[in-house]
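User: quick one - fold this with zinc ion bound?
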Amino acid sequence: MNDYRQRRLTLLRERMRAGGVDAVLAESAANVFYLSGFSGESASLLITAAEQYLLTDARYTLRAQAEAEGTIVIDAGKNRYGVAATAALVPPEAVWGLEEEVLTLARYAAWRQAFPRAGEKHFSAELAAGRQIKDAEELAILRRGVAATDDAFRYIIGEMGAGVTENAIARRLEYFLRDHGASGPAFPFIVVSGTRGATPHGTPTDKALAVGDLTVMDFGGVFAGYHSDFTRTVCVGRAGAQAREIYAVTLEAQLAGIAALRPGVSCREADAAAREVIKRAGYGDYFTHSLGHSLGLEIHESPSLSSADATLLAAGMVVTVEPGIYIPGFGGVRIEDVALITANGAEVLTAAPKELIIV
Ligand code: ZN
Ligand code: ZN
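Assistant: Sure. Structure tokens for the protein plus zinc ion:
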């Protein structure tokens, strides 16, 4: 097992001891991969004080044995928890830490049937806690993904112009990312132009770009399991006065958000630093979402740069900074970078230009 994974398990076992938990059941693909190295879709990872067991089925056992070094792989068919109980992997009255955010009611019932006398605690937050701070191996992958996503932007602005549809842009972006190391899109891409840009999470359509359209493009890929996330807004043909104004305000807010990032600053303070710029310019009501989120094995991870999150930033966290202004009937602007929190500030990993580009 590599040192990174060994360290993750050590930290998790410390949290298990602190929480009075004898066994942890990881069910989400992200946590299973993070702790075992298995990258398939269907497995439960059972972690005890001394061992880790990957409960999967015959479709995945060979792959699991190759990927999950140091983990005991069990072909448990359709009865994972029953097999774990029969094999006495965990004593009947042990206390389990369950991943309540992802464990379905059906699986919970099956688990309870297999371990009727077990204790249970919610353990989602403790399970994911280690993932907040990225190690060197994770950072190398994230940097590679962010760089490929920058390249996709440089490529796509050369393909854009009046008459090109939103769908065509989204397709070309996905093809480019897959062609440059991504296993797939990080999320359904957002390509929205003109008045459609007023919807922060709109999906692309066959609408053609028209002269004067602000066009918001939010996209990213999955690279060796890790997500990239990127937004730029460009203007088609020429930019009117209002487009230029809301672009300039959004960019100033984005830079203020980045400037606020450093260890010890709370997520809500970072959000407020950017939001204040937009409020002062009179567009506060049009910035309708949080400033950003962490990302890694999932596109949205904890903590998030939101007014509701009091978590203090720490070196090694990787967050997006993505303020926006969305005006119904007119259009929208969003600018999004990925930033790494460093010992005394933040390093912006995204390198694509941020001045308003006319395509
Ligand atoms: Zn995004
Ligand atoms: Zn994002």
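One thing worth noting: Residues 15 and 126 are 7 Å apart (CA to CA).
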